[in-house]
Specification:
With about 290 residues, this protein is α/β, with parallel strands linked by helices. The protein is globular, with a radius of gyration of 19 Å. A seven-stranded mixed beta sheet has the order 3-2-1-4-5-9-6, sandwiched between helices. It has a two-stranded antiparallel sheet with strand order 7-8. It has helices spanning about 20-30, 35-45, 65-70, 85-95, 150-160, 180-190, 210-215, 235-245, 250-255, 255-265; strands at about 55-60, 75-80, 115-120, 130-140, 160-175, 220-225, 230, 280, 285-290. Strand 4, helix 5 and strand 5 (about 160-175) form a beta-alpha-beta unit. The protein is built from ten helices and nine strands.
Length: about 290
């Protein structure tokens, strides 16, 4: 499976304001999330995810990674603090609301086996009877200042829910020189330069994932790099997809939505092809760590 271009809409709507959570979540699910499919596939191949896998997805978003694991036969549970994205994940993995059990579980026909989609943090996903043997954190770190600050406590809370020796997967952006999208993120950094706290853009560092693992008390056990090109049907789709990541929120706070959309569109010009599509090669990195 490879990233797919989003179908061109005759009259695309402007990128939604950051406060419009359902619209932005939909842009993430329909435009941006699929760009990370090669990363999900590489991790699942590396770890041989299958029917014996009991997966806990931290920051599961709209559930595409969970759905891919479930199609391999894995029992999946996802947690996220974004209500709009979890609602979309439930649409994907729990298609029959009448069959949804307490806590978001599902036991009806046609659903992914033992799927659960929950609002909140790892504590909401505790299952003492059947501990997890794989924890994933597919939200890439190493792009904005402080973007791993919330991940470390989430990992710390998730560790007691999994078996000893279980794999924990962390993901991050690759070297800036191998990520075309870096040039667009620099626009966000310039617009947000008056902000000195978390949310400001910074280039990825080589040991970002290892530092997170160490802070969470995990033992590194292998890593890999995966090509994840970002492909869009047109510039409007690219702007909407990129803004749905949340990586431009600091820029919007420091300026305004219209300015950010305009600046991002201009930064995309070098990546617009003759047919109007947008193509940006990127490399992502994953780290497999183990629970001691």
């Amino acid at each position: 499976m490879t990233p797919m271009l989003v179908r061109h809409q005759p009259h695309p709507a402007p990128a939604p304001a950051a406060a419009d959570a359902p619209a932005r979540a939909r842009d993430w699910a329909e435009i941006q999330e699929r760009m990370l499919v090669p990363l999900y596939e590489a991790v699942y191949e590396h770890l041989e995810v299958g029917t014996a896998t009991r997966l806990l997805g931290l920051g599961c978003g709209s559930g595409l990674a969970l759905l891919m694991a479930a199609t391999r036969g894995a029992r999946v549970t996802g947690v996220d603090t974004d209500h709009a994205r979890v609602d979309l994940a439930r649409e994907r993995l729990l298609p029959d609301p009448a069959a949804t059990g307490p806590g978001g579980g599902h036991r009806g026909p046609g659903a992914a086996p033992e799927s659960r989609l929950l609002y909140g943090g790892p504590d909401a996903a505790a299952d003492p009877a059947l501990p997890y043997n794989l924890v994933t954190a597919f939200q890439p770190v190493g792009c904005t200042a402080g973007d791993s600050d919330g991940l470390v406590p989430a990992l710390t809370a998730a560790v007691p829910l999994a078996e000893r020796g279980s794999a924990v997967v962390l993901t991050g952006w690759g070297p800036p020189e191998r990520c075309a999208t870096t040039s667009v993120f620099r626009v966000a950094g310039r617009l947000a330069e008056r902000l000195r706290g978390s949310g400001r853009w910074r280039p990825a560092h080589r040991d970002d994932l290892e530092e997170v693992a160490a802070r969470a008390g995990l033992r590194p056990d292998g890593s890999g790099r995966v090509s994840c090109p970002f492909g869009y049907a047109d510039t409007d789709s690219a702007v909407r997809g990129l803004l749905s990541t949340g990586l431009f929120d600091a820029a919007v706070a420091a300026s305004d939505q219209a300015t950010v959309e305009k600046e991002v569109a201009e930064a995309l010009h070098p990546y617009v092809r003759h047919d109007g599509t947008v193509w940006m090669p990127n490399v992502f990195r994953y780290l497999v760590a183990r629970i001691p």
